[in-house]
Specification:
Length: 245
Amino acid sequence: MLIYKNEFTVPYYESDVTGNIKLPSLFNIALQLSGEQGAILNRSDQWTKAHYNYTWIVVEYEVDIQRLPVFNETMTIETFAKTYNKFFCYRDFIFYAENGDELLKISSTWVLIDVDTRKVAHVEDEIVAPYQSEKIKRIIRGHRFRELKLEPTCERNYFVRFNDIDQNGHVNNSKYLDWMIDMLDFDFLSTHVPQKIYLKYAKEVLYGVSVKSRAEVVGEQSFHEILTDDLNAQAEIIWRKNDDL
């Protein structure tokens, strides 16, 4: 597998009140890097659409966090497409501090969908060959999520705006996490940082609809759902207090 690396310095507008990088920004940075590698290997989003009428979407993330990057910190991020099978591609992103320490790791699962039908398409060898990924037969099972209780800790409605939509025509995947984190209060977010995030996308959300964000907090763990008429996304986050770092 080919490894692609690039540096990123955390700007003011991507950091929160604690000085840490905003959580949704981690996914935006990851998507940027995967796109850069695809372009270098002549497998850009434009190439995939022109040759197959397909586009890549992420269906699941698992994030292990040692420490969040902070404002004005320059980090090195490396990404590589590890393995793939008939339906899924598995890609990792590893964020390193300037001294070489690992900050966090994002493991992601991707699928190809047909731009017109919005249905999952088979992963053709030609599309992923330049990444030099290993082809496997087995499907790697993700995290098993539990349902929220009938009476969640809190819930709130959001209207999908133009700026919530990405070039694939649906809600950008980082926006789901934004809606989820918004359920937690200021005191909790200003004194806690995540150490583990599981995030799964079940059904895409399009422009102009209303979504409901529901959350349940149990101790140092939060459980989240994004719903329209169906379940669209769910997450589980394990938190720790800032003074535990």
